[in-house]
Amino acid sequence: MTIEYIRYRLAEHTAAELTNAYVKAEAFLKAAPQCLAFDLSHCEEDPALMTLRIVWTSTQEHLTGFRKGEHFPGFLACIRPFIAEIVEMNHYAPTTVAWVRDADA
User: Fold this and answer.
1) Quick one: DSSP state of residue 9?
2) Which residues form the ABM domain (predicted)?
């Protein structure tokens, strides 16, 4: 498993426009077997910053499976207007440092 972070600094578009683009693009991510999860976050301190987090089966499967597969063209068409506003797009390997509070506690 790998986690891809795509960080945007919006200068030409609004947060609502990027969110709407990913509402359309999410169908392509959901259809791709390489995609395990995703979420889009909006920075509370700086409204121009947004981060998309995608959990992939692996970096290799993302790059050779999804990027070269049938779902990528539709996904790319949805988010293409925002590519120039990407300031980071990298894959991260999880570490052993993790914790989640039990909601029932």
Assistant:
1) E
2) 2-72
DSSP string, 45-88: S-TTEEEEEEEES-HHIIIIIITTSTTHHHHHHHHGGGGGGEEE
Map tokens 């392509």 to a residue.
28
The dihedrals phi and psi of 12, each to the nearest 5 degrees, come to -105, -20
Confidence of residue 75 (pLDDT cuts 50, 70, 90): very high
What's the CA gap between 20 and 102, in Å, rounded? Answer: 32
Q: What Cα–Cα distance (Å) separates residue 92 from each residue in 3, 8, 47, 97?
A: 5, 17, 24, 13
Whether pLDDT at 104 is above 70: yes
CATH architecture of 2-92: 2-Layer Sandwich (3.30)
| Cα–Cα distance list, 99 to 26, 82, 83, 95, 96 (Å) | 27, 33, 33, 11, 9
Q: Whole-model pTM above 0.90?
A: yes
For the chain, what is the total number of helices (H) and then of strands (E)? 3, 4
